[in-house]
Structures are given as structure tokens and as C-alpha cells.
Amino acid sequence: MKKSLCLLLAAGGLWANASMAQTPAEVRVAYSGGSQVLMLAKADGSLDKALNSKVKWVQFASGADALSYFASDAIDIANFGSSPATAGIVRNLPVEIIGVSGVIASYERLIGKDGINNIKDIEGKRVAYPPNSTAQYALEAAISVNKLDRSKITLLPLRPAEMVAAWKRGDIDAGYVWAPFAQELESSGGHQVFATKDLQKDGYLIYNNYVVRKAFAEQYPQTVSAFLRVHQQKVDEFKKDPERAAAIVAKEVGAPVTTAANTLGGLEYPTLSEQGTAAWLGNGTQTTDSGIGKALTKTSNFLAGIGEIRKRDIPANWDAAINSRYIREAAEK
């Protein structure tokens, strides 16, 4: 009897240890300084609670920085643009796309000074963009679909803060960037000329995605699914009361409420259930032909065309780049 009880207690201890091993002590989540629904979870601590882990929030300035953090094993999950994510995957970073945090509509846009009234007016002008970003991708796509003469445009790679400074000095005529920097350009004499949503009719799906270290996801699959559930909860929270959500996010990121409202409203949010279908990440069997798979193909070909990546490095399929397992599991609960 005592021996059996000891064995049972020992087994229980092993089970408890195994269960505890499924929850990391810390989850390092990278985010840009801009407004996003995930900031609602940072503000109220709900992500820590849902993951049953301490969340270390790591801020970055652009997608290129997020790639550097992944390369140095400094983060576990990040929310950044589809273009740099594609570049990282092609360069064999050990990461995968696990969800879409928001489709870029008016969140990123081209701001121009007086005299630039439409996209064609940027010929002969100095136009800045953040390198290795969805804004760069959108700008180059806009130049292509509108058949502009690229050789007549002076394209300047600048980080967002550098872009604002250059604008105020009079060094640039236009800039393609996201909030809150877009609003800074607008408040300094600029106006919207073009928005990323204008490319949707030409078949461009440009979005922000959640990317995870593969080793982390394999070790803590339940944590990844729980993370995605929190994302959906915060999207629902935003949609239920946009003004309240914008006020919370604005306080969290140190931005005006109008800026936060503009940014949050400038994204489109596919649900977890929608994302586990062929239109988005796929159901696990048609990854390359899924909406995100096709977007990766288009984006990688574009990046190869402008010399950001090598054509020969683009994989034959995206099975190792997109993992819809976690989004489908999150949608079931």
C-alpha cells in the first residue's frame, strides 16, 4: 500500500514537472513603438496571465531590427511587417509565420508636400522610406503598378524618426511611413497622397504578422496558441469600444489619442477562424497555395527584383515558413 502510494506520488511529481515544463518562465515579445491591439494586453497585464509567464516586452524601430533580434536569439515572438518577415525566412532565419495581426490599409501611407497631389507627382522628387519594411514594399509596388519612371525618383532609405527630421529640414519631398510618424509629417505641412489599401485592387496583400522562433513554438505550443487567443480578445475589445481602446493604447505608447485611433482603425483584422483557411494561412495541407503563401511568393519575387534577397534563395514552397497549427488550435477554444 505504502509502496503503491509512493509510486503514485512520484508519478504525480513527474507529471507536475512535465506540466510546468510546458510553460516558459519568460516570453520575450517584440513590438514596434506604434499603436497596436497587442498594447491592450501590455497595459492590463492580461498576456502575462494568459501565458502564465512573465512577458518581457522588447521594442524595436523597424522590421529589420526584429530580424536582428531573432538572429541573435533575443526574442521569441514578434509583430512586424510581411516584407521583412519574408526576407528573414528566405535568409533561413529559424522562424515561422503563425498569424496575421492586421492587414495594412491606411495605417501606412505616402505623405507629400505641396505640389504632390497624386502618386505620379513623385517623379522628380525626393521620397523617403524605412528600409526592409512593408512601407518600402508598398512604395515600390505603387511605383510599379502606376508605371512610374523609377529612375526619375530619388529614393532615400531612412528610419522613421530620421525621416521626420529630414522632412522638417526640407531634405525630402515625400515619405512613405506608418503612424505616428505619418501624422508628424501631416502636422508639418504634409497630406496623404497614397495608402497601402490602394494596392489591394492590384492583388497586393500587405500585412503585419506574428512570427515565432521555431524552437520556442515546438517547445511551448500551448503558449503560442494562448498568445494568439489574447490577440483575438484584444481585437474584440477594440471593436467593442474603439474610443476606450485607443485611449488605453495611446497612454501605453505615449501617443495622442487621435493617432492611436487612426492607427488601430487603419488595419483590418481577420479572425482566428478565418486565418486557418485557404484564404489566409491555410489549414495545414495547402500552405503554399494559401493567401499568405501566395503573398510570400509575390513579396519574395519583388524583394529579389530590387536586390534585397537572392532569387536562388527563394524556397520552392512555403511549408516551413507558415504554420497554421497554432491559429487553428487557438480558434477551437
Automatic annotation (TrEMBL):
Any one GO CC term of the record: periplasmic space
UniProt keyword Membrane present: no
Keywords: Signal
Naturally occurring in which organism (per UniProt): Superficieibacter electus
Domain of life: Bacteria
Subcellular location as annotated: Periplasm
Family annotation (SUPFAM superfamilies): Periplasmic binding protein-like II
Gene3D superfamilies, per the entry: Periplasmic binding protein-like II
Protein name: Taurine ABC transporter substrate-binding protein
